[in-house]
Amino acid sequence: MTRRIDLNMVAAHAILITWSLVVLVPIWTMIINSVKPRREIFQNPFGLPSEITFEGYSSAWLAGRFDLYFRNSLIVTVVSLLLILFIGSLAAYALANWRSRVSGIMYIYFIAGLMIPIRLGTINLFTIVQRLGLSDNLFGLVLIYTAMGMPIATFVLTSFIRSVPEELTEAARIDGAGEWRIYQRIILPLIRPAMATVAIFNIIPIWNDLWFPLILIRTQESRTVTLGVTLLFGQYQTDWTRALAALSLAAIPVLIAYLLMSSQFIKGLTAGALKG
Amino acid sequence: MADTVLTPTRIQDGKQETARWHAQRRRTWILFLIPALVVYTVFMAFPLFNSMRLSLYQGQGLTPDRFVGLENYAELFTNPIWRDRFFNALGNTFIFFFIHMLVQNTLGLLFATLISNPALRGRNVYRAIVFLPATLSILVTGFLWTLILNPRWGMLNQLLEMVGLGSLARPWLGDKALALPAISLVSSWQWVGLPTMLFLAGLLTISDDLVEAAKVDGASGWQIFWRIKLPLLKPVIGIVSVLTFVGNFNAFDVVFAMAGARGEPGYATDLLATFFYRTAIAGEHPVAQPNMGIGAAVATIMFLILMTGVSIWLYFGRERRDTQA
Question: What's the topology of domain B80-324?
Fold first, then answer.
C-alpha cells in the first residue's frame, strides 16, 4: 500500500520536474547567454559564461533608448491602473447602491465587455484617437487601457461592495455624511483586497500590450518597452548577444516582481479569469 | 421608531422630502458613474459597434463613407485576393485553438491534479514555476522561442543531437507543416498556468469526504479522477474552454513575433488577427493599402464567431444550473 503511494509521488515529481525544466531552461538560456561573448553562445549555449560581458545590455540600452521606453511603459501602466481603480470603484459604488432599472442596465452594459476583445474595435478606435489628437500620445494608450479595464473592475468591485455590511454606510449617512465622503472614508479602505485583484489582473496585459503601441505610436519618444523590443529584435536578428539582452531587459523587471509576490499574482489573475 | 431614526427627514415633511432625497441620491449615483461610462463608451463600446457599421461601407481614407451594403462580405468570400487568405486564416485559427485545448488544457488539468495533492512536497514551488511564463510578454516568449527553434543556433536541435536524436532536428519555423503547431505549442507553454490555476481552484473545492468515501469503497486513484473529480470539474472545464476560445480567436502577438505579420512561411501561420491587422492597418499584399471596409468585415466576423462560442457556453451553463437547482 505505502509502496504504491510512493510510486505515485515519484511519478508526480517526475512529471512536474520535467515541466519545470521545460519552463526554466529557455528562460535560463535567455539570461545566461545575454552576458556571454558572441562566440561562446554557439559553442556552449547551456553552460555558465567563461567571462561576463554586459556589452549586449549597454548597446541595447543605448541604441534602443530603453531608459525612455521603460519610463513610457511605467507611466502608461501606472496611470492606467490608477484611473481604472478610481473611476471603476466610483462606478461600482454607485452600481452596488443604486437599485433601479437604469443601474441594472448599466451593469450589464459594463459586464458585456468581459468577453469582447477591445481589439475588434480598432478600425474606429484609430479614427477616434486621431480626431482627439491623441495618436502617438501616451495618454491615448492610457484611455484605451482604462476602457479595457472597466468591465473587470466594475464586475469585481460591484460584487465586493455589495458584500460590505450596510450598517457601516447607513450609520455614516445618518450622521449626515455625503456619498463622496462615505466612498472615500469607508468604502475605499474596505475594498483594498478587491482593488489589488483588479490591479494585478490588469497590470500584465497593459505592460505587455503590443497591439495598440504598434498601431498608434509612431515616434521614438512615445515607444513602450514591447514596441522597443520588437524594433530592436528586428535589427539584431543575427546579433544574439544583443537580441537576448533586449529580451532580458523586457523580461527581468516582470520576473522580479513575480518572484517577489507570485502568490498574489496567481490569486489575482485566477480570480480575474474565473470571474471573466 | 426605527423607521424615524433611519430617515429623519420623514419626521418633518414626509413624502416630499423623501422624494427630494431620492432625487439627490440619484444625481450622486449618476455623477459617480459618468467617468467610467464616458471612457468605456468612447474607447470601447462605441468603436466596437461603429466598426461593425463600417463593414457596410467602402471608401478611401480613415472613415469609409460610401454605403455598399454587404458588398465587403461578398468581396471577402468570393474575390480570390481576400477569399483564399481569409479561409486559410480562419482554418489556422481553429487549428491554433484546438492545439491549445488539447495540449495546454490537458497539461493544465494534469498539473492541477498533481499539485492539488496536499501530500506533495514543494507544491507551491511547482505552482509558481508552471505559472511563471504567463507573466512574460508574449512577445518575449515568441522571440525567445524563435531563437531556440532556429535551425542555425537553435538549442532545440542541439539538444536533440546531444541525446542522439539528431535526425529529428528540423527547421521548425521554416517548415509549412510544422510552423503552426510549433507556434501553438509555444503559446501553450506560455499560458498553461492559467488553466492549471483554474482547475486547481476547482479541485480544491471538491470535498475530501467524497474522495475518502470512494477510497473506502475500493475505488482506485484513476477511478476517483474519472468518476468523481472530472464530472465535478465540468463548470471549470466550461470556463477554461471559453477563455481559451476567446483568447485564441484574437491571438496576434505570438504569430507576429515568431512568423511576422504575414504568418510565414507562406501564410502557413496566418491567424484571423494577423489577417485583420494586414487588411485594416498595414495593408494586404499585393494591394499594400489598408482597406477599412474589408477590415471591418473581418472584425465583425471575428466578433460573431466569439459571440457564438460564448453563447454556446452560456446556454449549456444555464442548462446545468437549472438541473442543479
Answer: MetI-like fold (1.10.3720)
